[in-house]
Amino acid sequence: MIVSLYNKVSEDLFFNTFIELILEGYLEFLIIGYLNYHSPIQSSESGETYANFLSYYIIYSALFVLPALLIWVATRSQQTLRSEEF
């Protein structure tokens, strides 16, 4: 009984930590994209033009691609998540 409880808690802790890291990275993407979109550095340097393009890409991926991917993974069963093919 104690071993099964330990296994369940350790699995939950692993997935909770994994989800926490994903959400922290997601929020970082949103903050970076918003800050660069809201107040970009106006310069004729090619790096700043690239940074502006990158901020649009980050906002798009943070608002559409990453949530769709997280929903897709969250709807998979535990057996699918543990399989080698996944």
Share of residues in strands: under 5%
* Quaternary structure state of the chains depicted: single chain
- How many helices in DSSP terms? 3
Low-confidence stretches: none
The tally of structural domains comes to 1
The biggest sheet amounts to: none
Using only CA atoms, what is the Rg? 19 Å
> What is the distance, rounded to the nearest whole angstrom, between the alpha carbons of the first and last residues?
30 Å
Question: What is the strand tally?
Answer: 0
Order of helices and strands: HHH
Helix and strand content put the structural class at mainly alpha
Mean pLDDT reading: 77
Shape: elongated
Helix content: over 70%
Condensed summary:
The chain contains three helices and no strands.
SSE layout:
Elements: H1 2-38, H2 46-74, H3 78-82
Describe this structure in words.
Helix content is 83%, strand content 0%. It contains three helices and no strands. The longest helix has 37 residues, at 2-38.
Q: What are the key terms here?
A:
about 90 residues; mainly alpha
